[in-house]
UniProtKB/TrEMBL annotation:
It comes from the Bacteria. The keyword GTP-binding does not apply. Homooctamer. Pathway: Porphyrin-containing compound metabolism; protoporphyrin-IX biosynthesis; coproporphyrinogen-III from 5-aminolevulinate: step 1/4. SUPFAM superfamilies: Aldolase (SSF51569). It catalyses: 2 5-aminolevulinate = porphobilinogen + 2 H2O + H(+). It holds the Pfam family ALAD. Its EC number is 4.2.1.24. InterPro entries: ALAD (IPR001731), ALAD_AS (IPR030656), Aldolase_TIM (IPR013785). Belongs to the ALAD family. This is Delta-aminolevulinic acid dehydratase. Keywords: Heme biosynthesis, Lyase, Porphyrin biosynthesis. It comes from Bradyrhizobium xenonodulans. One of its GO terms (molecular function) is porphobilinogen synthase activity.
Amino acid sequence: MAIKYGRPIELREVSRGTGTAVPHALDLTVRPRRNRKAEWARRMVRENVLTTDDLIWPLFLIDGHNKREQVASMPGVERLSVDQAVREAERAMKLTIPCLALFPYTDPSLRDEEGSEATNPDNLVCQAVRAIKQEFPEIGILCDVALDPFTSHGHDGLISDGKILNDETVAVLVRQALVQAEAGCDIIAPSDMMDGRVAAIREGLDRSGLLDVQIMAYAAKYASAFYGPFRDAIGSAKTLTGDKRTYQMDSANTDEALREVELDIAEGADMVMVKPGMPYLDVVRRVKDTFAMPTFAYQVSGEYAMIAAAANNGWLDGERAMMESLLAFKRAGADGVLSYFAPKVAERLRTQG
Ligand SMILES: NCc1[nH]cc(CCC(=O)O)c1CC(=O)O
Ligand SMILES: [Mg+2]
């Protein structure tokens, strides 16, 4: 059947243009606006919903007690001492946010070439995991695995002659994952983009009897300008030498993302992630459609900063932009989102649905 103006021509024999009560009414049988005429009607036909179950809340940690420090490039986001992180965990519980992600600001005196603080079983991340789990064992905790918060050069791996070493780095990452898992972390999230790290970490966890610790692989992670504010937050912005393009992906590629994801699944990833988020929604959709795996996206620091900055300038409605940006991930097929907006979103969902 030939289609013209939204309905088959064969069905258009009767003209509706004459005798209608409304002067100048167009001859339209199909009027998509009918389904948008009221809030109840919009709710009935809504295809995607955002709930608190979709949220993972990233927290930045800092040494000390009763300390909260603004991150300048992320208005509304703070670095928290462990006791304060426990308070935020309590808030997350009340808001029914299922999972927290932890990122440390490591004191510069503890950073070195090898990132040795990453494997200290008593480092800031491990302290926070233990403290949160002791008070709130029912909340999920995700720990990032990569060396950049701990290295003096700000790279995610070991360096020799200006090259980021793959296999040597993987050995350290396994030890980092093990101290975090032994501290009680539920999900290990390798964000380093070394080849083969998922398999090595899975093997290390299993050998230590940590069979139930999940792996969420930052499988398709791009070399991105949108990580800038995060590097301020963890204090690696000033120290980072060069860029991360020999290990993080080229932003021009999507087939490559599928190959990366396929490898991580084969190596034992329980969940996969695409990062950054909004500029890579096409990748989220392809990954979800191709692998049907639990698929997450990271709305990264730069995405947060853009919305927060524009809102603070009165250039856009920050709350609405926040909700719209998160719903976009659901539309693209994501099962959940790491977002610095998590507590704000959860509060809004609770009061306004
Ligand atoms: N490997 C570390 C890591 N884990 C998460 C982010 C970025 C998160 C954000 O920007 O919010 C980064 C930064 C980077 O790779 O340089
Ligand atoms: Mg990979």
